[in-house]
Specification:
TIM Barrel, 8-stranded parallel beta barrel, two-stranded antiparallel sheet, 12 strands
Length: 351
């Protein structure tokens, strides 16, 4: 099991944990992942970290589709990968949600399934540099000929000779998008993945693999990465560790999205906590945030996290090591947690 480190996006003040990333590299972590919502972006920090590290892979978990055109996303990835020495950039991509897409970026929610498909195809064409860039898709077409066009758009080829094999990862959790992930991506950043849940997703991924094979591609479990994420908090008091994650969980389950469209709430329901998910959302949207936090079940936090003293974390890590993921991304601000997880991963490696 490879380990990654998630540093997410910054809060009110830009705070990039360079020393923590350098520690991860020293401990043997394989990757570091940034994120973006509607504050700090996911790409710029990786350019800085590329200069402060030597070999750790640099991943976006995730770049939001609406934030950039596919050409700009390809340029960002190709530029940082080149600056980092080549073979280090991992392009994680996702649609975010309609509140951010329409409220923050001013883009239509549209048909995200087809937008992802067009987006990835365009990026791969740019990296390949086989001909001038053209694309006729259901959501994106190039050169642009729609409303307001002058009609003189030219098929262009990237000036920079980029790495043509930059891996693409898609953050997804719904059936159609997971199937598409298996078809067009090199790896998956699963939403709501916990030990024992791979069986739910496996048929969808395999259907995607089969679609790729019908197009003549070598695609299957042997060359597909699954980067699961886990919250880790080292504390002798298990209950205190669990409680520290509840504000974040109440925000996502209760308020990260509209009442009718909240992917995090849907996943909590799918994992058997439907009543609690409804209660958390009801309280949060009514402005009772403290009560919403208290309504998050301890069992839900414990299911998706590794909480407590080192011995408990190492014991419960075994289920994650056997969950079917190829890499486990640690979500923690504790250096102690990074050490504990590095020790746990070694315990599960052949000696």
């Amino acid at each position: 099991m490879k380990l990654g480190l998630s540093i997410g996006y910054s809060g009110a003040q830009m705070d990039l944990p360079v020393e923590r990333v350098q520690l991860a590299e020293k401990l043997g972590y394989d990757s570091v992942w940034t994120a973006e919502a509607y504050g700090s972006d996911a790409v710029t920090p990786l350019a800085f970290l590329a200069a402060k590290t030597e070999k750790i892979k640099l991943g976006t978990g995730i770049m939001q589709l609406a934030a950039r055109t596919p050409a700009n996303a390809a340029m960002c990835a190709g530029t940082i990968d080149a600056m980092a020495g080549g073979g280090r950039f991992l392009l994680g991509l996702g649609v975010s949600g309609p509140q951010i897409v329409e409220g923050w970026y001013g883009q239509p929610w549209g048909r995200p399934y087809y937008r992802i498909k067009d987006y990835v195809e365009i990026m791969r064409k740019i990296w390949a540099r086989q001909e001038g860039l053209t694309h006729e898709g259901k959501e994106i077409s190039l050169p642009y000929t729609g409303e307001g066009a002058m009609g003189i758009g030219k098929p262009l080829k990237s000036i920079l000779h980029m790495n043509p094999k930059i891996p693409v990862y898609i953050g997804s959790g719904q059936e159609a998008s997971v199937r598409l992930t298996g078809e067009i991506a090199d790896g998956w950043l699963p939403l709501g993945f916990v030990p024992g849940s791979l069986d739910e997703y496996k048929p969808w991924l395999e259907q995607g693999f089969e679609r790729a094979r019908k197009k003549g591609e070598d695609k299957g479990w042997h060359n597909f990465d699954i980067h699961a994420g886990v919250f880790v908090n080292v504390d002798d008091d298990v209950k205190a560790a669990i409680d520290r994650l509840k504000p974040r969980e109440a925000l996502y389950v209760g308020g990260m999205g509209a009442r009718e469209k909240n992917f995090h709430n849907d996943l909590m329901c799918r994992r058997g906590f439907a009543d609690a998910a409804a209660r958390v959302q009801e309280l949060y949207l009514a402005g009772h945030k403290k009560e919403a936090e208290e309504a998050v079940p301890d069992e839900w936090i414990d299911l998706k996290s590794l909480m407590g003293p080192p011995a408990r974390i190492k014991e419960r890590y075994k289920a994650w090591d056997e969950c079917g993921a190829t890499s486990l991304t640690v979500r923690s601000a504790q250096e102690e947690a990074m050490h504990v997880m590095a020790d746990a991963a070694r315990l599960n490696q052949p000696r």
